[in-house]
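User: Here's a protein and a ligand (hypoxanthine). What would the complex look like?
Assistant: Let me lay out the input and then the predicted complex.
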Amino acid sequence: MYNREEFQRAAEFIQSRISAQPSIGLVLGSGLGKLADELADRAVIPYADIPGWPRSTVVGHGGNLVVGELEGQIVAAQQGRAHFYEGYTLQEVTFPVRVMKELGIHSLLLTNAAGGVNPAYQVGDIMLLEDHINFLGLAGANPLMGPNDESLGLRFVGMSQTYDRPLRQRALEVAGEGGIPLHSGVYFGLSGPFFETPAEIRMIRALGGDAVGMSTVNEVLVARHGGLRVMACSGITNRAIDVVDTELETNHEEVLEAGAVIVPRLTTILKGVLSNFPT
Ligand code: HPA
């Protein structure tokens, strides 16, 4: 368990390395960190330098916090994130969200790579999260377990208005203007690191999941605990396999390869939202 001073210490360190105050946080998932290269006047702060900050060991996840200007907004972009399956606790996984909140951001925009469970989803499509199922979280593996610091947020967190409606509406407008296939759907959050069995995929579909992945839900939970506005997008990197006895097998390479079409699409969506950020 962390105490608030540890979040503040990390935030103070970041403050000492930047000149402009970020108001929006970005979390850039598998293969998506390149987006941070678009930030103007950027300060690049290696995670290793920030006290307490967890580092991703996964290929495709960079390891920097990049603070700079994008579409008229000062953003703090995480190039890569730590995951539960790497052996981090859920408090460690969500430490960056707490620090971003201490830095003064009001909104958090997250991206991830996910498998398409909904048969209508194609590789390269984007899914805007309108809701999620935190499968482990429901059973007690979530970062809000333990004593609650009331100065960070309430003990009991409402989750029915998690994915900010004006932000979603704006994203849908931007995608419509840009001809980007953007679905609204339910993200099913698991721990990984294994990809799901076909029977698990059929279960996830039956339970209402449209896309499946190994991140995001914990960060979103902590963001909502801290009162941040949240938007999240999944890049569909592969179609989840729902039958046995097939030649198909999901692998990390295809997840990274799909980034080539997903990155420009997510970049367009995020820039469009930032350039006309709904109040
Ligand atoms: N399952 C879980 N996580 C993922 C997948 C998947 O198929 N693709 C990318 N991340």
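Summary: Residues 259-275 form the longest helix (17 residues).
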